[in-house]
Specification:
By secondary structure, the protein is of the alpha+beta class. The chain contains 11 helices and 12 strands. Strands 2-1-5-4-3 form a 5-stranded antiparallel beta sheet. A 5-stranded mixed beta sheet has the order 7-9-10-12-11, with helices on one face. A hairpin with a 7-residue loop joins strand 3 and strand 4. About 20% of the residues are buried.
């Protein structure tokens, strides 16, 4: 029974007592006695009803008190859980105005609760992301009538007061009233900056490991191909040396000096060929293990080229006509002599190898705009267009090379040496007409590897 029901009973009892009173004034004595007895009965009945109502009210009061106590305890537990959550926990209205915040939230944003409450959450979003954050919040409100909308998650860059920006994982939960209307939002924020940094490091390490494994596989394949090709390439000069040495051993006393010199020349040429092969392999292996050094030192361009030409002409034994020209405004250069020798000797070796005996090979060196320009031109078999783009790859040989000996390392070494100088190389070629190599290197630029 509630208070309204009790008041109604009291009012009804008053009406009944008043009625009995009026009747008593109109009746006789005997009837008065009966009337008083009836009144007393009514009063007694009313008192009993009032007693019952009072007991019901007491019971309701006790139940109400218990409910209030349970609500207070529940609110206390909620508040304790709210404060003890290790992540930042916020409650806001649908516009993002902060209404509640736990201690973790004040720590995360580096601001006291009194200043935090009443502020827009987007105030602490990094400036470049505020528009995107605002659009997400608008999208949440626009979906307010969607019954299955419960939680949304994303990442955002936050800017705590007087601290370095952080990356936070955001979880947003809808708060609805009994009618299902969106009345607020619960926010859970977690600093994942360190996690992101760790993930980035792991990703970098994974990529580095993949690159290392790919490099290892490439190096293993390279070694395998190198052994195969080298063993094949060494057989011919070794066979020549062996046969010439054996013939000299048994028949030199019967031969003229000219014939003996012919075989000695074959031996020397084979040794030089093997030496070049070994030099190429050494340079390639140094590059693969990142030990190829670059040591630029002052040198005289013209003198260097002339000395190199003298060596090449001796090894070629005048089978080709080598024409040299120089137009140097400055003969001093800051280049790596060892690498420059690799560049020019490999280019010359290719020109001589793929040009017919008796043909002319042109070589020129010029200087302009603080650069040295080396150009070697032959009139040999040329390089097919489809091979030019692959010519600097290790072990690549042009499709028209035929039975001409070679490992396909020379041009790869040339490219590496040119790159170490910070220069460039251009190849122009036409089938059966010849090839022109143009190498441009800085004269005095300070370069580091």
């Amino acid at each position: 029974m509630n208070l309204d029901d009790l008041a109604l009973q009291i009012q009804n009892m008053r009406k009944r007592v008043a009625l009995l009173q009026r009747q008593s004034e109109q009746q006789k004595v005997q009837e008065d006695i009966e009337l008083v007895s009836a009144i007393l009965k009514e009063v007694h009945l009313a008192l009993e009803e009032l007693q019952i109502a009072n007991e019901e009210l007491q019971q309701q009061n006790e139940e109400l008190f218990s409910t209030q106590q349970a609500l207070v305890a529940q609110r206390q537990r909620y508040q304790e859980l709210f404060e003890e959550v290790p992540d930042a926990y916020l409650v806001s209205d649908t516009k993002g105005v902060i209404q509640e915040a736990n201690s973790a939230a004040t720590t995360l944003l580096n601001i006291s609760k009194s200043f935090l409450l009443g502020e827009l959450l987007e105030t602490y979003v990094l400036e470049k992301e505020i528009i995107a954050f605002h659009l997400k919040l608008t999208h949440l409100r626009d979906r307010a009538e969607t019954p299955d909308w419960k939680m949304q998650e994303w990442e955002v860059n936050l800017r705590p007061r007087n601290r370095t920006p952080i990356i936070a994982a955001v979880k947003v939960v809808a708060i609805r009233n009994q009618q299902g209307k969106l009345v607020g939002l619960r926010w859970l924020l977690r600093d994942i900056s360190e996690t992101k940094r760790t993930q980035a490091k792991l990703k970098w390490a994974e990529q580095a490991m993949r690159q290392a494994l790919a490099k290892e596989r490439e190096f293993s394949e390279l070694k395998s191909r190198l052994l195969t090709i080298t063993s094949h390439e060494f057989r011919t000069p070794l066979a020549t040396i062996h046969s010439s040495a054996e013939l000299l051993e048994h028949y030199r006393h019967l031969w003229s000096n000219e014939r003996q010199n012919t075989h000695l020349c074959r031996i020397q040429k084979s040794v030089m060929h093997m030496t070049q092969l070994l030099n190429d392999v050494l340079v390639l292996s140094q590059d693969e293990t990142s030990k190829l050094e670059f040591n630029p030192k002052p040198l005289n361009l013209v003198e260097f080229c002339r000395d190199l030409l003298e060596e090449l002409e001796q090894s070629d034994r005048s089978q080709h006509a080598i024409v040299f020209s120089s137009e140097c405004q400055c003969t001093r250069a800051n280049l790596d002599a060892k690498l420059l020798r690799q560049i020019l000797s490999n280019l010359f070796s290719n020109c001589l190898k793929y040009s017919p005996i008796g043909s002319t090979v042109k070589f020129s060196v010029t200087t302009a705009n603080d650069q040295a320009i080396f150009q070697i031109q032959d009139s040999g078999i040329g390089i097919p267009p489809s091979d030019i783009e692959h010519i600097f790859e290790p072990f690549h040989r042009a499709s028209n090379a035929g039975n001409i000996s070679g490992m396909g390392l020379g041009m790869s070494i040339v490219k590496q040496a040119v790159d170490l100088h910070g220069g460039e190389i251009i190849v122009e070629s036409a089938i059966a007409e010849g090839t022109t190599f143009t190498v441009t290197l800085p004269l005095s630029k300070n370069l580091y590897v």
